[in-house]
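Troubleshooting entry. The earlier prediction with nicotinamide-adenine-dinucleotide gave an output that would not parse, so I re-checked the input for stray whitespace and re-submitted. Clean input:
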Amino acid sequence: MSSSSSSAERLSQIAGHLNFPNGLLQGQVAIITGSGQGIGAETARLFANEGAKVVVSDIDAKKAKDVAESINGNGGRALDVPGDMLDSNYIDELVKRAAEFGNGKIHIIVNNAGYTWDGVIHKTTDKQWDTIIALHNTAPFKLVRAAAPFFRVKDNEPRCIINISSTSGLHGNAGQSNYAVAKAGIQGLTKTIAKEWGPVFGVRSNTVAFGHILTRLTAAKEEGAFVTTPDGEKVALGIPKAQGDSKAKAGFEDIPLRRPGSATEAARAILAVASPLFSYVSGQTISVTGGRNI
Ligand SMILES: NC(=O)c1ccc[n+]([C@@H]2O[C@H](COP(=O)([O-])OP(=O)(O)OC[C@H]3O[C@@H](n4cnc5c(N)ncnc54)[C@H](O)[C@@H]3O)[C@@H](O)[C@H]2O)c1
C-alpha cells in the first residue's frame, strides 16, 4: 500500500482544494474487472481511497479476496466477487452483487481484465483468436449490456465506463494480431456507449490505452506466470527475458520518458478519467505511455 497511499494522499489534497473533501469518487460504486492484481488492483485501492465502494472482480478468487480484505482493513469499502469474464452467468452475477453492494446503484465500470496470447499471424490458432476477442471485446460488451439498467438512469449522479486498451491496439504489434484487433475494437464500444448513453443519461465513456506498464504481463516469461483457459489450457504470460533485457539495455529509447510505467501510475490515469476533473471528457482514447508512439 505504501506507494499508492502516498499518491492517494496527494490526490486527496488536490480533491480537498477542488471541493471534494470526501474524495473524488465519494459515494460512487465501481466494478473493476481483473482487479486481483496489477493495474486493476492498484485502481481498486486508489478508487477506495477516494471514497468509492469497489467491487473487486477477478478469475483468481484468492487474489480478489486479498485485495478486498486489504482495502477493507485500511478503512475503505470493497467486495470481492470472483469469477470468469468469459462466463456470461458470472457477468450477470457480478452486476447483481455490485448493485446489492451499492444499494441499487452502480456508477463506474472499468473493463480491465485481460491477458495476451501471442502468435504470429500464420501460426495463430482459431482458439487463440477467439479467446482474446471474447475476453477483450465480447466480455466488456456483455458487462456493459448487463449493467445498462444502472447506467440508463436520471438521478443526477455521475456515470462512467472506462475500457482498457493498449498501444498494440492503437498501432498494431507484431505477434499480437488477436490482441491488436481486440484492443482497437474496444474503442468502438467506448465511442458507441458515449453516443448512446451520453445524450439523455450523461454517461461518459472513455478508453485508456497503456504502453509498457510493469505487471506480470510485461515481466520475464521465464518467471512462469500463466493463465488457464476455460477448457484448461495453460497460456504463458510475459515477454521473453532476452527481449525485455534488450529494451532496458537500450534505455527504453522508444519511450520519451525513457522508462516503463508502474501499475500505480497506470491506475492514477484511470482514476483521473473516472474523476469529476474529467467531467467533460467522453468518447476519447487517452494514451498512458510515457509518450511512446507520438
Ligand atoms: N501491463 C501492460 O504493459 C499493459 C499494456 C497495455 C494494456 N494492458 C492491459 O491492462 C489490463 C490489465 O493488465 P495487467 O498488466 O494489470 O495484467 P495482470 O495480469 O497483472 O492483471 C490482469 C488481471 O485480470 C485477471 N483476468 C484475466 N483473465 C480473466 C478472466 N477471464 N476473468 C476475470 N479476470 C481475469 C487476471 O487474473 C489478473 O488478475 C489488461 O486489459 C491488459 O491487456 C496492460
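This one parsed fine. The domain at 2-214+260-288 is CATH 3.40.50.720 (Rossmann fold).
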